[in-house]
Structures are given as structure tokens and as C-alpha cells.
Amino acid sequence: MDRQRIINGLALFAATLATFAYGSGFLSAANGFFVGLLILAVYAGLQLERFEGAPLLKTAVSLVTRPSAHPRPTAFMACLITLGLSGAIMASAVLV
Q: CA 68, CA 66: separation in Å to the nearest integer?
């Protein structure tokens, strides 16, 4: 297994686990927000690392809009799901 698959799997697992923990009440709103922010920041940073030297805004937009920016279609889906779950935790924690 290559490094990217391991990162995608761990990030997806962490985001799913955090979503279930927040939804079931094991995480408070403040803790849920910071866990979501941590997953989002670390995962997005690791994804942006692959595009070293490219413009930041163009790279960030291409991560969620262009499947060809990822090595495999499953990596694109893992990216969307991880970023979506982390963003949903943060949004619901702010609205509480």
C-alpha cells in the first residue's frame, strides 16, 4: 500500500468516528468543532502537499472539483467524504 491510501483511509476513519461520536453525544459541541477542524486542517494540508509549487487557490479548488487531481477515483471520494464530514461536524457545532 502506498502512503496516499493509508492517509485517505485513516482520515476517512477519523472523520467517520468523530461524526458518530459527536452525533451520539460522546463529544461536546466545542470538542466536536476542534476535532473537525483538526481533521480538516491536517488532511487538507497533506493533500495540498502533493501540489508543491502550484498556486494555493487553484490547487484547493481542484481538490474538490477535479477527480483527475487525485491518483484514483476512490481517493477523490475519500477526500470529498472526509472534508464533508469534518465540515458538517464544525457547522453543527457552531449552530448549537
A: 5
